[in-house]
Design goal:
flat, 7-stranded mixed sheet
Length: 208
């Protein structure tokens, strides 16, 4: 009888040990399935655990926790890229790349992506998937607020817009505060040409 009781206890302990990894696996799956978004912006300040960046409508606070992966130390003016949960708690903060466009982008989970199109019937050519053409450039018209090194800062409809001049940018003249300029830029706001706006140029961002 004692042997049977001991055997039952050992069997129960083994079952508990086997259940722990399974529960942990489900917990990890639940975490990975949480919706996320990517925030790209210029860093304004680091206030303890909060990274404050310039957004399109105002400041955005990104909270770093003990689980956040931070690739390096950042300072004012650095353009950062943060993968965050929907409550702005950061999973990873890194330096933005040259092709990272400033703004907030919601990430679509793999499970929520559209299913693959069904294969065409035998003998029929598959219909090509319609791919919307992405604009390659846009035009920004606005009043100049400041020129900070290579950045032309203009007043936009929802806040300040930074236009970056590079070695390849064509700048027709020297501009100062209050001048209304017209800039043809790539989608990451790197300028191809900056010129004085004409009387018919309406302020705003115009996609070509």
């Amino acid at each position: 009888m004692r042997v049977s009781v001991a055997f039952v206890k050992i069997l129960s302990a083994v079952c508990v040990l086997l259940l722990i990894p399974v529960q942990s696996l489900f917990a990890q799956e639940g975490t990975s399935a949480q919706p996320t978004k990517t925030i790209v912006g210029d860093l304004l300040d680091v206030d303890r655990d909060f990274y404050i960046v310039r957004g399109e409508v105002g400041e955005i606070q990104i909270e770093a926790t003990h689980k956040t992966e931070i690739t390096e130390e950042f300072g004012y003016g650095d353009r950062i890229k943060a993968l965050v949960l929907m409550n702005n708690k950061a999973l990873k903060i890194e330096r933005a790349g040259p092709d990272d466009v400033a703004g907030v982008t919601e990430n679509v989970p793999a499970s929520a992506q559209a299913p693959e199109p069904q294969q065409a019937a035998k003998g029929e050519a598959p219909a090509p998937a319609a791919q919307p053409k992405q604009p390659e450039s846009k035009t920004i018209v606005g009043d100049l607020l400041d020129v900070d090194r290579d950045f032309y800062i203009v007043r936009g409809e929802l806040g300040e817009i930074q236009i970056e001049a590079t070695g390849k940018t064509e700048i027709t003249e020297e501009f100062g505060y209050g001048d209304r300029i017209k800039a043809k830029v790539l989608m990451n706001n790197k300028a191809l040409k900056i010129e004085r706006a004409g009387p018919d140029d309406k302020p705003g961002v115009h996609t070509e």
